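Late entry, evening session. Most of the bench is empty. Finally got around to the prediction I had been postponing all week. Sequence below, unchanged from the version circulated by S.P.
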Amino acid sequence: QVQLVESGGGLVQAGGSLRLSCAASGSIFSINDMAWYRQGPGKQRDWVAVITSRGTTNYADSVKARFTISRDNAKNTVSLTMNSLKPEDTAVYYCNAHIITTQRGTTSYWGQGTQVTVSS
């Protein structure tokens, strides 16, 4: 059994910053890619950023130069630091991880989501 638990969402004014965190726990052998997605009101879930197990990162064009993804492999955590937030960043943010379990199965796991609201 594997769980992803996010934290750090909230309400912030435009131009402000927030830091989201996600911790993976359970029967984990190793974690490959870790990523963040978001789903705005009435929209589909979109990819935001990804980080490989070696630390290579990639970002959606809409968040480049404003968001930074990082991870701590020893703690099985991934974070998303969001600067210069805009009202259009308002969404539920989801953590995703491709995890190899101790039973050697590989599955994509999702967190429960955390709300980020940016006021204008």
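Two things to note before I forget:
The CA atoms of residues 16 and 103 lie 43 Å apart.
The chain is about 0% helix and 60% strand.
Will write this up properly tomorrow.
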